[in-house]
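User: I'm curious what two different proteins look like when written out as structure tokens. Can you demonstrate?

Assistant: Sure. I'll show them one after the other, since each token string lines up with its own sequence. Here's the first protein:
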Amino acid sequence: MSNSKLASVTLISPNKNSPRNKPINRISIHCFVGQVTAKRGCEVFQPTSKKASCNYVVGYDGSIGLCVDEGDRSWCTSSAANDHRAVTIETASDNKDPYAVTDKAYAALLDLVEDICRRNGKTKLLWLGDKDKTLAFKPAADEMVLTVHRWFANKACPGQYLLDRHPEIAAEVTRRLGGDAQTSGTGTTQATDNLYRVRKTWADAKSQVGAYKSLANAKRAVDSHPGYAAFDGTGKQVYPEPETSFQPYQVQVTTANLRIRTGPGTNYAATGGFTGAGVFTIVEESPGTGSTAGWGKLKSGAGWISLDYAKKI
């Protein structure tokens, strides 16, 4: 079993079981709680007294360290059953909620997760968002599933910053791998199949009565189901057309790291900018993946923000 060539540091921890006793079909991303380099992160897991380890450490500067061979089980998620199946990754983060990571660390994390999936023969990375659903799920040979530490222990790990980005991580890595769509924890679909979905609302996936390649067929399904609408793959309502009586309004943003995107959803690329704390004017709303409250377009034209993190004033 190979290890990632992206690792520039190798410091193997004695805290492990060799070999792992299950095939790899999971990835568990953790927050390290400290803005460390990969080398320093691996050093933390060297003493046997630590009784903990991980397969990889991603540093704040984008460095990557190998701490436990992928063929071995790390001691990382407080669950032997999970650790025997998962490649575990500690990611340098702030030491307080929401345990944010740097842009360099996030970019390196995406590259590493992609590499892990690719070398293990996976073309899809799934985020199901629910412990029971995930643990009961049997991945296909080409599927990898994301799990999180907080499911197995009373911990905040991986922190809200990374947890909120799990749908985005799954969608982006799957896109890079050339895989098909997958379901996120919000019940929405990261659609790459160009289907029109007929539901009561985009967020209510359980109400879906069909998915159609033809918009005309989707419209017919809507017409026969009062109260339903047709949505494209991004979650935008395309039939019936939503009312256009929208009035711009202002929101208060208190976080300094609210990411701006080119469109309404985590399946749209980040612009690389952040709002910072302050008051902003929203000139358009749209449903979209990765946000319960929906997405708002900034008056400045900089892009879209998740309204989960903005309070209307």
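Here's a second, unrelated protein for contrast:
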Amino acid sequence: MSRERRRTWLVTGASRGLGRAVTEVVLEAGDTVVATARDPRSLADLAERFGDRVVPLPLDVTDRQAAFATVREAAGRTGGIDVLLNNAGYGLSGGVEEVSEQQARDQMEVNFFGALWMTQAVLPVMRGQGGGHVLQMSSIAGIATYPNIGLYHASKWALEGMSETLAREVAGFGIRVTLVEPGEFRTEWSAGSMVRATPMPEYDEVLAKRRHGMSGAYAHLQPGDPRKAGEALLKLVDAEDPPLRLLLGNNAADLAPRVYRERLAEWERWDALARTTDHER
């Protein structure tokens, strides 16, 4: 699609991190952004800079009724929604045994169900206008796994499965779906945005390195540039044939193929046993 055609984006979690950077890049490119956050006052400076091309709205993505109401208001005020960026989310640090029930449920409520509710809310708008693009902010953690963030992985793997299915269901309506899979970007993700489980001493040795990595010690030292991520997403939505998955960052681009090669090799090693479980013909 030509850049002469100005789009309207709806971005969740637009107040900080990747969401904030993408919002600024998109606005600078001349598009309109409905920017949502739990506290829209954090977006006031964007309204001062970009005027009526930014529409700040309050939103808690875990509230399904609020998600539908926000999408209706956004479409009513702007005339439609061309791109939904489901960016709202956060990290949860803790071993699988360490994470509390509430922490686990909250992680899924925001990272998975929040994206699901927003996706359900925007699809009638996009079907009615004959197309659109849903960008799901996944992660390299939706492909590979690391100790100490198992529930975060679970939320992103759920998002990946839902979104790959969605892509097949909505293609006939002219709606594109892309899973954005960034590696490490220079944000607050491992610092102020991170929720941490209470450590169990049994895991002190096993998880020591990963706990330190999720302590905020390396926040704003990561290799990824959030603004460059925004520029990449502009190129993505301009593409005539956008991908289902887009890796962002060298570490993600290196790791994902290695993970899949390892999986293919393991399936091949165990292929003979896999083929022993069907009924005899």
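A detail about the second structure: The chain has a mean pLDDT of 94.
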